[in-house]
């Protein structure tokens, strides 16, 4: 599939697997805390002169899926990686601007944080964009900062890291519960 971007109105319909929506010039009008049903208004946002771009990218839903382990299939991994790449591969608000992201597709969608965080990091790195990752204090993010620091010290290429994620995913069986094992695997693989 070819990656591309197009200008769409804010009322855009369902995105294709090779599409994301970039909104440039968006402003925050309110401050909030929480997520989903726990989302609460906590006050007005301060006025900012900074140009901000927001990206909307849909994730594959796994919550309630009898075969939630399909997120480790090569087809789904490539879909999520391509989606993140399309979302991060633009020059707004400036070339090389950091990607601020978090547990995309994990909470309500049931994706595994260790897998999804590595896919986002790989995609952002392929677009030459640093990542600022917001864990929202989710305990499933335990070890993420240490793991990313460790992997950076190893000077891995994007391709090498992706290959190891792909190899890890290929060994997953439907009955496995690997949601907190990818970081351990990466440490064991690259320790020397």
Structural account:
The chain contains 5 helices and 6 strands, in the order ββββαβαβααα. The protein is of the alpha+beta class and 192 residues long. The strands form 3 sheets. Strands 1-4 form a two-stranded antiparallel sheet. Helix 2 links the parallel strand 5 and strand 6. Helix 1 crosses helix 2 and helix 3 packs parallel to helix 5.
| Shape call | globular
Residue windows where pLDDT falls under 50 for at least 5 positions: none
Radius of gyration in whole Å, from Cα? 17 Å
Helix content: 25-40%
State the strand order across the main sheet: 1-4
Number of strands: 6
The number of helical elements comes to: 5
Largest sheet: 2 strands, antiparallel
- Return the string of H and E elements: EEEEHEHEHHH
SS-derived structural category: alpha+beta
Average pLDDT, rounded to a whole number, is 88
Q: Report how far apart the termini are.
A: 37 Å
Please indicate the percent range of residues in DSSP E strands (runs of 2 or more). Answer: 5-15%
Structural descriptors:
single chain; 192 residues; alpha+beta; two-stranded antiparallel sheet; 6 strands; globular
Describe this structure in a few short sentences.
This protein has 192 residues and is of the alpha+beta class.
Describe the secondary structure blueprint for this structure.
Layout: E1 21-24, E2 30-33, E3 40-44, E4 53-56, H1 74-88, E5 99-101, H2 113-126, E6 131-133, H3 144-153, H4 158-170, H5 182-190
Helix pairs in contact: 1-2, 2-4, 3-5
